[in-house]
Structure formats: C-alpha cells, structure tokens
Amino acid sequence: MARNVKISSLGKQPPRFPIEEKTNYEGLVEDMIQFWKGQIDIVLPDKPDLIILPENCDRYWGTPGEMVVPFRKAMGTRMLDELRNIARENNCYIVHSSSLEKPDGTWRNAAVMIDRSGEVIGQYNKNHTVVTEINKGILCGADTPIIKTDFGTVGFAICFDLNFDELRLKYKELHPDLIVFPSMYHGGLMEAYWAYSCRTHFVGCTGVDTLPNEFYSPVGHKLATSTNYYQPITHTVNLDCKVAHIDFNGSKFTAMKKKYGADVTIFDPGLLGCVLITSKSETVSIEEMVAEFEIELLDDYFDRSLAHHHDPANRE
Predict the structure, then answer these.
(1) pTM for the complete prediction?
(2) Which of 285-288's residues contact partners 24+ apart within 8 Å by CB, and which partners?
(3) Which of 88, 122, 149, 310 could in theory staple to 118 by disulfide, Cβ–Cβ 3.0 to 4.6 A?
(4) CATH fit for domain 4-238, picks 3.40.50.150, 3.40.309.10, 3.30.470.30, 3.60.110.10
C-alpha cells in the first residue's frame, strides 16, 4: 500500500562567524537557533513528515579554532531542545546533525532522529571521520543503526562516509527504506550509486549554498533537486516499492499493470535493465503484487545467476 512520506531537505549554509561577536557566546547560540528556526519556517507550510538539517548545522562557518569547543559547550542541548519542540508542535520527524560530546570528553559527528512527539529515538555517529576531525577528538562511530519510524526504516551516512564501500555494503544487507545524508559535500555520482546499490530512496542535505540537495529513487533516478536560488526543498516519495530486473518479468509486468492500472507504476530509468515498481493502492502493497504475479526481484535474480555461475557444472 502506498507509503507516501513528505521530506524537507534544509540544505542551507550556516551563517559565517561574526568576528565582532567573538566573546558573546550567549548571543552566538541564540542567533544560530533563530537562523535555523527561520529556515524551518520556510517548509512548515508544506506539513512535512521529515525535516533534515545538514551536517554540523549549528556550527558557524569560519569559527576560530580556539572557540569551537567553548561554543559547543555553550550550545549544549539548546538547539536540540528547540528542534524537539518544533517536531512536537508540527507533528514531524527532524534529523539534527551536530558534534556531540560524550561523558569521557570525546566527541562524535552525529545525526540525531527526533520523532513526532519530540522524543529522540536514535542516533547515528559518522563512521568515517576525516583525519582533521580525529585530531580534534571526534572519534569514528562503529554502528549502523536502522531507525524505525511510522513511515518506514531510516539509515544514515554523513559526508565522508559516502566514499566507503564497507559502510554501503552494510546498508545493502540491512535494507532501510530511506538513507538520509547530512553533509558538507555533495558526493556526485555516489548519491545515485548508493540509492541503486542499497535499493533505497536517498536524500542528500548539504550545508553549502552552491551544492544542490537531491532526492534519488532506488534505481538511482534523480527525483528532485534544489536550485542555486532556493536551497530548502520539499518532495514526497512513496516507499512502497521494489526493484525488479526486466529478464523473465515482461509478461508479468503487463499482467500486473492490466489488473491494477493506475494503482501501480513501473518506472524504467533506462540502460540498467531493471525497473522500479511502486504501489499507489490504498489496499494492496507492492509485496502482495509481487507475490501475486511471481515477479522475481533484482537481488533474487542476481543471487540465482551467481549460484548458476558458481556451480562447477557450469564452469570451464
């Protein structure tokens, strides 16, 4: 059954550090909170289910090195608390990305998921921190949590993470419905590749005004993008979908479309040899449609092909 989720990606560059305010931590904290409240206000009229903020959203650009930690300590949980209130008041999930201090004094580059009631329901710590982060006491995360929401399951990657197959392959096995990517760089072709490789929807949220925030489908097709004029973008995706190869499924696709009509879409991105089939029905899920017509999904087809390949009877 259709699982539509409206997502707002607030890929907006945080303000630059105001030199004249360098000793006024209280003012700096309040100004940062008001900045992001203003960005969130842009998308709230759309009534999103999920709002995503970029990597280290509450860090001023160009903050002097000696002021980073004092500013973080002054910020404490104030941004998080404000976002929790916004989530509660607007019945939405929010992803807050920030540097968080642990009791032992070490730090994590983290993405925190807040639910519709304002409760924190999960946290992902960037697995692949860059060397400069490690030198500042920001340690690499070790886990790949999959967070359950009322619209589906969510996994995360942050910035430099997108370069590493080790992390991507973990998500390929975990099968989240959506991967959220708060970042300070775009990733280029890797965004589409992660979406296709993991058979999942993928949403990028970059905290640089010159970089677009993009939505990708599980076949690596770009669904939506921000522009150079408007960074915040809201788009609705339907998570009730599956990826199937075209081999041996052609007549089944035809029969499924004949029966369900507009309640099912079969999208061909071209060149890949596979399609994205999505249920728009209010009563029948894509899993039920796939089972009814015995459609072989992409990974099942690849597994069958590999078994054939590794059978000694089929090897030279």
Answers:
(1) 0.96
(2) 285/1, 285/240, 286/240, 286/241, 286/242, 287/242
(3) 88
(4) 3.60.110.10
The domain locations on the chain are: 4-238, 241-310
Dihedral sign computed on CA atoms, order 91, 93, 95, 100? positive
Query: Which residues, including other chains, have CB under 8 Å from residue 284's CB and lie 6 or more apart?
Result: 1, 260, 263
